[in-house]
Amino acid sequence: MTASRKILALNAFEASRAGDLGAETAAEVERRKRTIGPTSVLFYEKPLHVVSAEGVWLHTADGGRFLDLYNNVPSVGHCNPRVARAVADQVATLNIHTRYLFDVVHAYADRLLATFPAPLDRVAFTCTGSEANDVALRLATIATGRSGFVVTEAAYHGNTSAVSDVSPSSRPGKALAAHVRAIPAPIGKGDVGRRFAENVRAAAESLEQSGHGFAGLLVDTIFSSDGIAADPPGFLREAADLTHGLGALFIADEVQPGFGRTGAGMWGFERHGLLPDVVTLGKPMGNGIPIGGVVAREDLLKDFAESVGYFNTFGGNPVSSAAALAVLDEIEQRGLVANAASVGGYLRDGLRELGRLHEAIGDVRGAGLYVGVDVVGAGGAPDAQAASRLINGLRDRNILIGAAGGFGNVLKIRPPLVLERRHVDIFVDALDACLRAG
Amino acid sequence: MTASRKILALNAFEASRAGDLGAETAAEVERRKRTIGPTSVLFYEKPLHVVSAEGVWLHTADGGRFLDLYNNVPSVGHCNPRVARAVADQVATLNIHTRYLFDVVHAYADRLLATFPAPLDRVAFTCTGSEANDVALRLATIATGRSGFVVTEAAYHGNTSAVSDVSPSSRPGKALAAHVRAIPAPIGKGDVGRRFAENVRAAAESLEQSGHGFAGLLVDTIFSSDGIAADPPGFLREAADLTHGLGALFIADEVQPGFGRTGAGMWGFERHGLLPDVVTLGKPMGNGIPIGGVVAREDLLKDFAESVGYFNTFGGNPVSSAAALAVLDEIEQRGLVANAASVGGYLRDGLRELGRLHEAIGDVRGAGLYVGVDVVGAGGAPDAQAASRLINGLRDRNILIGAAGGFGNVLKIRPPLVLERRHVDIFVDALDACLRAG
Q: Using CA atoms in the order A359, A360, A366, A372, what is the torsion angle rounded to 10 degrees?
């Protein structure tokens, strides 16, 4: 069983080891198994039957209320009223593909691009982050005439055929595709930036020798599935400069860190003082209404469009654009980037305080409201089983988090950006109680 | 310039040949060019600035009203009130990824699968038809251990890297990928079914000889971008039987013909009396709210899910499922399949009547509300320029249609399924006027 398999299994419901779910939940699990079962794993040993949500809270069929520290898609809050109103108004007014002129679509494109540094001046809308990364790979192969990519060892960039190839965490137990090299995530002690750049250089050389050539370095700028790597800010710069020096593209996958989550501007790459060639967007972009995008220089998107006549039927449609515009309004008008920085810092402080009380809490990493906590056993070794016990223990205390990392031992905490300090207090107290319960 | 390039160019706005657009439209075109320009071609010599829509009508910024015979996505009508209400209610109640139990998602999966013959008993939700076809290709390669696919010469199956490879119409002027064989669409005189099956056999043999092997036959069951092939019903059966005999999968791409459009049941493959191994869904599934899906036997989806740990963040989310459930309700309660058959028949009759009056109108093909009309010149030769004149002439008369076919000379007519006979009368009269105007 590989690392990524472990991550899934940790969080996943498994009928074989489930206790008494109650008749209603058991019936719903069975109904699901008979329809969407094969491709739709449930979370937790006791799955949640969710009926509504608001802000940072999920409500279940049995009247329960769960504090959501897991879901980064509804980043301006579950059922955000402004987003809900924008969607309701737009779906009743106009929703169609983008081969015509539309105010809301153009207004959103203007607003979105205004959040990027000037050379990144064009956007192609998609429906998902996977589709965005699928396009990004092609931008790089067309621009460089090469086909090789460097990614991190437990990276996840999406679910299309091409993107699965560059997502080692989706390929449990399988060899990497010939045109892909995986290097360790920049987590650990010492000069992580230097080490990361050296690994990129070696991987690029290997790609050159294999004949594929080095087309691009594709990284999630917060390294979500690798276990979260954030510090020191700037550590990615050396690898980016090296990539450019080798004539390859730096692709910033902002599907997870983007839209203010890191608390230091809108985009994760900004923390590193670098300029990507291509940026990919997804998850929180429409607060759950499907929309993704690729932001790049005009020349890159033009060459691609002419090469394949790209069009995406639902991409950037008026309803998705209206939702996405409302998300930008919420982030800006409610100061959610600053909130992510402030509440995220308070969260990390609380977790580090717990670390002084409990041996099982190791390194606490992150930026803004994307936080990873190493769960460790004797001698600081990764302890995935203890992480699993904590995740399910928190679930029993009505708090939702997940797992990440190559060893599956990293607590993954990425709540809606509207999280407040009082919610952090609830979580830290509950985690403390779980740790005391053992 | 290849055939598919011609199709795009026919419909596309080109600044270089545009006349006076008016200041407002010109400004909007410029704004768009500066943001989503490269990947977002506009339709028509004079693009439409659309502000709202209802039923089969689009409304423009200058107060115009356009009869929409092009858009197959809002198939239960633009801004369908039931869909709009379902979306508004759900987005204000709950919208989140599907790792939990949800009533609306499970209810939709039940209802959707009930429209399929029994062996097709599981669904994987995606966000787009492209993502669905991307999954379908992998189901076939995993199930057969082979990698080769047979498609038609002007096929379009979507926009991911893998799906672009099996979409010859997306690869203008380029050689096909080594694992793909393209055969003529089953359009023409004589025994089209026999000829099509023979071409499949030859392509499969070529794939076997090349070492790729024959993994699957992937066809749009109404052959939309090839120029629409519908008759005689049943002609696909021989190719499907042959495919199964060779141990390969028959993948029915129902993104365009599905959800009742052909007027003969919910799915295009039903007209042919065959049982696909995999069916892919998209476009009209949520009336414009992004949702797609792959319906297949449990064993195929199970092997795939175990192979790549497939998950799609937005796939089948509660808002998309609620929209899709409302679409099924509309189709069933308003009798839209029967309406497609009836109004579609009336439309073809009207077009054939025009064909007796005008030499430029050649073969009229189709099923239900998917209709193709060959525009021909001297001796019946395809005449793409005349088709373009008709399409833009109709646009000037406030009616929207498109172009299709390997020669770009096929009028593509696929209105919302709520079309009525009075709308057909408007269209046929306008087309008659365009033909008389020359």
A: 180
Would you say A290 and B290 are in contact if contact means Cβ atoms under 8 Å apart? yes
CB contact under 8 A, A106 and B28: yes
In chain B, count of helices (H) and strands (E)? 13, 15
Chain B positions touching A96 (Cβ under 8 A) are: 50, 53, 58, 71, 73-74, 78, 288
Range of the domain at B16: 3-76+336-437
B186 and B243 in a single domain? The answer is yes
Q: What is the pLDDT along chain A (438 residues), one digit of tens a residue?
A: 334 444 444 577 776 666 678 888 999 999 999 999 898 889 998 999 999 999 999 999 999 999 999 999 999 999 999 999 999 999 999 999 989 999 999 999 999 999 999 999 999 999 999 999 999 999 999 999 999 999 999 999 999 999 999 999 998 788 999 999 999 999 999 999 999 999 999 999 999 999 999 999 999 999 999 999 999 999 999 999 999 999 999 999 999 999 999 999 999 999 999 999 999 999 999 999 999 999 999 999 999 998 888 999 999 999 999 999 999 999 999 999 999 999 999 999 999 999 999 999 999 999 999 999 999 999 999 999 999 999 999 999 999 999 999 999 999 999 999 999 999 999 999 999 999 997
Number of domains present in the structure of chain B:
2
| Alpha carbon distance B134, B406 (integer Å) | 23
Angstroms from A238 CA to nearest CA on chain B: 30
Please tell me the distance from the alpha carbon of residue A179 to that of residue A37, in angstroms, as a whole number: 33
Q: pTM surpassing 0.90? A: yes
Q: Which 8-state DSSP code applies to residue B224? A: T
Mutation site, B48, B54, B91, interface A, largest A CB count within 10 A: B91
Do B371 and B282 sit in the same domain of this protein?
A: no
Question: Cα-flanking dihedrals φ and ψ of residue B99, to 5°?
Answer: -85, 5
Residue B134's CATH number: 3.40.640.10
Query: Does the beta carbon of A298 lie under 8 angstroms from any beta carbon of chain B?
Result: yes
B98 touches chain A (CB under 8 A): yes
Say yes or no: B261 and B373 in one domain.
Answer: no
Radius of gyration of chain A (CA): 21
Contacts with B, A 237-296, CB within 8 Å: 282-283, 287-291
Last residue of a domain, one of B310, B333, B356: B333
CATH classification of the domain holding B10: 3.90.1150.10
For residues B100 and B26, membership in a common domain is answered with no
Which of these three, B298, B313, B333, is where a domain ends?
Answer: B333
